[in-house]
Amino acid sequence: MNLNNAGIYIHIPFCRSKCQYCDFYSMATKDDKLMDGYLDAVCDHIKEAGELAPGYKVDSVYFGGGTPSFFGADGLDGILGKVSQDVTIADNVLMMTPFAADSADPKVQAFVKAYQDAYNATPDQFAADAYDAVYVIKAAVEKAGSTSGDALAAAMTSLTVEGVTGTMTWGSDGNTNKPASAILYYDGVGTLFDHQD
pLDDT tens string for the chain (197 positions)? Predict the structure, then answer.
């Protein structure tokens, strides 16, 4: 069967603040419950649309609307992870994520091996984020010398943590800064994209 290419636009209606010039539907909120519900609804809609469009494969995904980065890499990366679909729909799709299980980084490979030994599965971004979160909390407690929420928040802006998802620092707004990896999906399987290939 020859497949026709199709692009997907995913509207992310969440922003830090509402700009007066913006015509997109958006809301100034960081309500995690609302955002998680929205992610579930988007995934359900993608499944429904896929069933109505046989013969098409997605070759591009555009996130827009509000401030997609405000939704977070966890939300954006989770869209492919949550949708169980025909593997051909994820053929030649490039996604950005802070974690790639096939990275050559020794820290990543040690984590992947330990995870596979324990769970008989390859870890995804969410497993890597949780792993790093434990070490971030440890570093914050050590830096603050306290477990007080205010002391931990104050310590975060001075931390640099080397994790399996990359080197992390935090801004005064509480957001993390870390590099992203590009994952290229062929037949539904993602591998680390090397731009020199």
Answer: 456 877 778 888 887 777 777 777 788 877 878 888 888 888 788 778 877 877 777 777 777 766 655 565 555 555 655 544 555 555 666 666 778 888 889 999 999 999 999 999 888 877 898 899 999 999 999 999 999 999 999 999 999 999 999 899 998 888 888 877 777 776 667 777 765 44
Strands of the 189-192 sheet, one edge to the other: 93-97, 181-186, 189-192
Phi-psi region of 138 (alpha: psi -120 to 50; beta: other; left: phi over 0): alpha
Give the total residue count for the chain: 197
